[in-house]
Every structure is written in C-alpha cells, then in structure tokens.
Amino acid sequence: MITMLLGEAANFVAYVFAPAALVTPLGALSIIVSAVLAHFMLKERLQGMGVLGCLSCIVGSVVIVIHAPQEHSPSSVEEIWKLATQPAFLGYAAATLSLVLALILHFEPRYGQTNILIYLGVCSLMGSLTVVSIKAIGVAIKLTLEGINQVTYYQTWFFVMVALVCVISQLNYLNKALDTFNTAIVSPIYYVMFTTLTIVASAIMFKVQYPGILVEAVVIP
C-alpha cells in the first residue's frame, strides 16, 4: 500500500510537468512488475501470450516516448477550464459517461463475471477523466506554491470533486476485475485501454500535436 501511494504521488508530479499522453504510457513498467509478481507470489501462471502482451506494452511505450507529443502547458486553472468546456471535450465527456452508465446498468449484471472488458471498460473510461482532472489539480497546486493563488477559483474545487468521484469508481471496478479474473490478464488489458483513452482525452482537450498529426479543437474564448 505504501509503495502504491508513493508511485501515485510520483505520477501526480509527473502529470504537472509533462504531457499526460507521454506520462501514461510509461506505466508499462508497473504492468511488467505486476505480472511477474503475480506469477511468483500469487502462483498465477504467466503463459506465453501473457509474456508477449507485456513485451508489446513495452514496445508501444517506447514508440510513443520516441514520438513525444507537443502539448501546450496551461498557465492557470481558468485556462484548463476553457479547454475542458470546449465543445469537442464536452462531447467526449458526455460519450464517456454514457458508456460508463451503460456498462454499469446494463452490461455488468449480465456479463460482468464472464467478460473482462466490462469492469476494465469502466476503469479506463473513468481513468481518462481522472487524468485530466489530476492535471488541473497539479497545475493549481504548482501555481499556488509559486504565489499565484488558485484555491479561490471554483473551477479548482470542481476538478477536485471530479477527480475524487472518478478515482473511487476506477479503484472499485479495478478491484472487481482483479477479484474476478487473473491478474496477469487484467493488468495488460487495463494498461492498453487506459493508455489509449488517456491519449485520446488529452489529444482532444489539450490539442496534442504528434509528428504529422494535429488534433484540433475549438476553444471557447
């Protein structure tokens, strides 16, 4: 538990200083460690395909890091709020919440115990919103420590509430997935889904620019 908290604290700091689309893929190391520890400590046998999946995660992370995206660094919580309320991201957030409700209310009672994608879908979708909120909170803390108080803005507390709700939901369904399915299978699938959705959310909200690709969004003035 202590090491997990330390790891999440380090992740939080990383999101403040680097693009979310770059930080998230580097979580591949935690996937490898989890799979290896589950193999030796929990006696959950890691099959050949599991090893191949872990290697694929590492290769994918290396490719993303090599082609690191260009991302504008917000200078205030108000600026992040404008990005979060642009039509493109509002559409993404609405679609995400709709899918989460569908998975929880319709698919979980029927297929939750047999289909790993139900629990991990909820985790990954909520996780993409968590990363965006954490980014805003990190910027608020950084600016406040520099003497530019962001605590008085209601947007800061809105992002805090969103982060709390998303994190609690994310952890709840991740624990359900781990209790129901093999850890060596849950970790790589969750990593791929979470990373993909985080990159998509960051690309839409922060207009992340990859080499040869620009994801444009209209920002409300």
UniProtKB/TrEMBL annotation:
One Pfam family per UniProt: Mg_trans_NIPA
One GO MF term: magnesium ion transmembrane transporter activity
Keyword Transport listed: yes
Localization per record: Cell membrane; Early endosome; Membrane
Annotated membrane topology: Multi-pass membrane protein
GO (cellular component) term, any one: plasma membrane
Protein keywords: Cell membrane, Endosome, Ion transport, Magnesium, Membrane, Transmembrane, Transmembrane helix, Transport
Record flagged with keyword Cell membrane: yes
SUPFAM superfamilies in UniProt: Multidrug resistance efflux transporter EmrE
Residue ranges of the TM segments: 12-37, 49-68, 88-105, 117-141, 153-173, 185-206
Entry's family note: Belongs to the NIPA (TC 2.A.7) family.
Function: Acts as a Mg(2+) transporter. Can also transport other divalent cations such as Fe(2+), Sr(2+), Ba(2+), Mn(2+) and Co(2+) but to a much less extent than Mg(2+).
Record note on quaternary structure: Homodimer.
Record protein name field: Probable magnesium transporter
Species, as recorded: Canna indica
